[in-house]
Amino acid sequence: MTKEYWDSLTKEQQSELAINVGSTTGYLRLVFNGYKKVSFGLAKRLEELTAGEVTKSDLRPDIYPKQ
Question: What is the pTM of this model?
Answer without folding.
Answer: 0.89
